[in-house]
Amino acid sequence: MRHVITLWEMTTAEIERIFAISQDLKSKLQQGLREPLLAGRVAGLLFEKPSLRTRVSFETGMAQLGGSSLFLGADVGWGERESIADFTQVLSQYVDVIVCRAKTHRRVEELAEHATCPVINGLTDLAHPCQALADLFTLREVSGDLQGRTLAYVGDANNVARSLLLACAKLGVRFAIASPAGYEFDSAYVGRIKKEIPGAAVLQTRDPVEAVRAADAVYTDVWASMGQEAEKAIRSKALAGYQVNEALMKQAPAGARFLHCLPARRGEEVTDGVIDGPQSDVIQQAANRMHVQKGLLVWLLTEA
Question: How far is the C-alpha of 127 from the C-alpha of 179, rounded, in Å?
Fold first, then answer.
């Protein structure tokens, strides 16, 4: 039994296998074929945070694969009415896989410690592996391959950026990030990646232009995520010079694409002209959340 808590648990070959399954399922869906590869299987979606893409993509993906899902919100009393161990062991008797969207990373780790079925991290404050997998799958679709590509991230080195950096390192993609002082990756995280993934190419800079200069794709995210609302004014001031706008995109190569995990705060981290422009792949990127998560589910429940 395997869990997907971060991408550290997965090898490059396993990610490539998930991409292959995802591409096959996506192609078949476009032809109107929906193979019931997970018939009778049930996913429990244990969510502490609101969601559009994660919830709907997992629910729809399970349905297309012949399975079903249960949305489990605050009413199930996770961590309130009984011990984490009791809750998780009982839930594991009812479902085949748990997808958890939690406020803290430790909450998902606790689930994995006690679960007797696979646990997938649907988002925590530390990591968003499902998003990163869909992002790299999208980059491969629009670029033709991944080896030697460069992904530039502009903004706060948050949970999405952490998972993106790790995915890029595992798949041979150069990663450049432009962040203001105090919002960059900590040296320990970058150091671990360089130690455990020899050849990982990472550029950290304060200059957005330097970051995007050789980019095949330019990526950004909101300046204040859920749970950071109290910091919004401070973050907006610190990140004001890190907006992805038409002027910045002109500093990237002519064929550079634009990516965003959504939801976007238009006029803050990105302008309408960029996110709605001809270089933007954000809708394809969002759609691929479902396709890649279908591949992940099939791999996790039938092959891993």
Answer: 18
